[in-house]
Amino acid sequence: MTPTILFSAGAERFDIYAAPLEDALRRAGLTPHLVTEAAPEAVDYIVVAPGSGISDFRPYTRCKAVLSLWAGVERIVGNPTLSQPLCRMVDTALEAGMVEYVTGHVLRHHLGMDRFINRPLAGWDATVPPLASERPVAMLGLGALGLACARALTGLGFPVLGWSRSPRAVDDIACHHGVEGLSEVLARAQIAVTLLPLTPQTENLLDAAAMARMPQGAVLINPGRGALIDDDALLAALDAGHLGHATLDVFRTEPLPDDHPFRSHPRVTVTPHIAAATRPETAAGVIAENVRRGEAGVPFLHLVDRARGY
Ligand code: NAP
Fold first, then answer.
1. Is 225 a catalytic residue?
2. Around Cβ 260, how many Cβ atoms within 10 Å?
3. Catalytic: which of 151, 177, 260, 273?
4. Fewest beta carbons less than 10 Å away: which of 77, 118, 193, 298?
5. Which whole-number Å values give the CA distances from 60 to 57, 98, 263, in the listed order?
6. Which residues of the chain are under the pLDDT cut of 50?
C-alpha cells in the first residue's frame, strides 16, 4: 500500500518530521510516500498544523483524513470546506510535557517559591507552606492532558477537583460537570488549571463571575487556550487582589504583543506557548497508525467531533 501523504505543516517541521514519519510508516507496514506538494486529487491523507496553508479542502476529493499535529484544533474544526474526517494529536510526549509544566507551576505557587528566588531574604519569616493535601487544585478539562496532569497532582497528594463536559468517574479525583459543577469546583480550588479546548461553549468561560467564585488569593494556570479567559476580567481580579497570580502560556494573540498588560503585570507570569509540544519521535507513530487504520478501513484514533468542536 502506498498512500500519498501531503505534509502541509510547514517546511521547517517537514525537516524534523520526514525521517521519523517515514520510519513509523514502514513500521506500520506501509510504503512511505510523503510529499510537500501534490495535485489535490492525488492526496490520500493531509498532515496539518496551524498556519499550514491549506484553507480550502474541497479539491482533496480522495483524502481519507486530515491529521493534525496539534492537540487543539479550534483553527481548523470550523472550516466549512473540511468534509474529511479530522483527527487531532494525542501524544505521549505532549502529555509528559504538559504534566511537567503543570506540576512545576502548581508546586511553584503551592510552595511560595517566589518569596525566595532572586530575592534577598528579608527578615526571618519562617512560615511553613501547607502540605499538598491541604491545597485543593481544580482541573478544568479531564481529557488526555487534563487527566494526566490530575493524576500527577493526586500522586503528589493534592486533592484534585475535576471538571468536564460529560459526567466522569475517575479514582481519587472528585469529578464534576455542568454549570453547577463548575461553580463548586472554582469555589473550592486554591489553584485552578485550565486544560479545555477552545469552543463556542468554553470561550470566556473564566469571566468576572467565574473568577469571583474563586477563593481570595487563588491562582490561575492556563496552558489551554488564551480565549478561555476574559483578559480584562483577569486583570481586574488581579489588580483588586482577589486572585493572587496567573501563569499564562496561551493568549488570544500569539506572540503576545510587547505592550500587552500581561507582560508587565507583577502578578502575571507569561510563558510563550511552550507548555507542551508535539514531538516527532512519538507523534510520527500516531500519524502512521491513523494512516494504517485508514488503509485497513478501521476507525481512526482521536477523531474530532465537529458538533462538539473538539
Ligand atoms: P481533550 O482530550 O479533547 O479533553 C478536553 C477536555 O475538556 C475533556 O475532558 C472535555 O470534557 C472537556 N470539555 C470540553 N468542552 C467542555 C465544556 N464545554 N465544558 C466542560 N468541559 C469541557 O483535550 P486535551 O488533549 O486534553 O487538550 C486540551 C487542550 O489543551 C487542547 O484543546 C489545547 O487547546 C490545549 N493544549 C495546549 C498546549 C500548550 O502547549 N499550551 C499543548 C497541547 C494542548 P469531556 O471529557 O466530557 O469530553
1. yes
2. 16
3. 273
4. 118
5. 6, 34, 42
6. none
Claim: this prediction has a pTM higher than 0.90: yes
CATH class of the domain defined by 92-270: alpha beta
The Cβ of residue 155 has, within 10 Å, a number of other Cβ atoms equal to 13
Q: Is 5 in the pocket of ligand 1 (CB under 6 A)?
A: no
**Grid coordinates 500569539 are at which residue?**
254
Q: How far is CA 25 from the centre of its chain?
A: 26
Cα separations in angstroms, 196 against 104, 133, 161: 19, 25, 14
| Tens of pLDDT, residues 198-249 | 999 999 999 999 999 999 999 999 999 999 999 999 999 999 999 999 999 9
Ligand 1: atom nearest CA of 147 is: 26
Contacts of 53 (CB under 8 A, 6+ apart): 8
CATH code, residues 5-91+278-296: 3.40.50.720
